[in-house]
């Protein structure tokens, strides 16, 4: 879970301060998503957020602190957009609808951008241990949301596979599909990856004797 945002000094934020901080994080997230971490400078963030340099340092000690806030922001956004679908992942129909929503989103985005969390992860994985762990934590939360539905199916006797393994494999298929969809600029890789995984899950649903 996210901790309450504070100033770089550690003091609690006022409502106005929270709004300003959120504007800075949102601007940074967009720039990092579009340009990458290196190209998205603090000066760019300042201009995009419409704040002064001193305001940025009022809320963030350095770019690393801002990056960690962006990772949390992107994770929250990804999970919150899927929340209405997550609560229905305890049925094959719900899983298929989730799949369709993910594919439709990529169509609307014209297969650009990839996964906001995965994109950050690929940039920090080998050179920023703290950020890598933050991204990994976001994926753990995503996996847990998938696993909750599969665990419910298993508890009802509607799934004889391991919910932990199936959830991890589903997330891995999703991330691979998103990357290839981004590179190829077509949704077929995502469709094929998710369909194969959901067919695998369906194969673990006991059939009436």
Automatic annotation (TrEMBL):
Location of the region described as Disordered in the Swiss-Prot/TrEMBL record: 1-20
InterPro entries: Homeodomain-like_sf (IPR009057), HTH_TetR (IPR001647), Tet_transcr_reg_TetR-rel_C_sf (IPR036271), TetR_C (IPR011075)
SUPFAM superfamilies: Homeodomain-like, Tetracyclin repressor-like, C-terminal domain
All copies of domain HTH tetR-type, residue ranges: 18-78
GO molecular function (one): DNA binding
Keyword terms: DNA-binding, Transcription, Transcription regulation
Record feature DNA-binding region, as residue ranges: 41-60
Protein name as catalogued: AcrR family transcriptional regulator
């Amino acid at each position: 879970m996210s901790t309450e945002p504070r100033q770089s000094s550690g003091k609690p934020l006022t409502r106005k301060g929270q709004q300003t901080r959120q504007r800075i994080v949102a601007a940074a997230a967009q720039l990092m998503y579009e340009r990458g971490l290196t190209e998205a400078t603090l000066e760019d963030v300042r201009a995009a957020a419409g704040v002064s340099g001193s305001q940025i340092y009022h809320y963030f000690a350095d770019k690393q602190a801002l990056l960690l806030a962006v990772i949390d922001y992107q994770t929250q956004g990804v999970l919150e957009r899927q929340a209405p679908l997550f609560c229905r992942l305890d049925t094959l129909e719900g899983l298929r609808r989730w799949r369709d929503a993910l594919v439709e989103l990529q169509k609307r985005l014209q297969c650009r951008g990839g996964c906001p969390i995965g994109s950050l992860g690929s940039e920090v994985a080998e050179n920023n241990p703290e950020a890598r762990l933050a991204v990994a934590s976001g994926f753990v939360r995503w996996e847990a949301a998938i696993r909750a539905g599969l665990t419910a199916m298993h508890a009802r006797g509607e799934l004889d596979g391991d919910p932990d393994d199936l959830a991890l494999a589903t997330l891995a298929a999703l991330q691979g599909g998103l990357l290839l969809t981004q590179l190829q600029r077509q949704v077929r890789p995502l469709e094929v990856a998710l369909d194969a995984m959901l067919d695998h899950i369906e194969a673990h649903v006991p059939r009436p004797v």
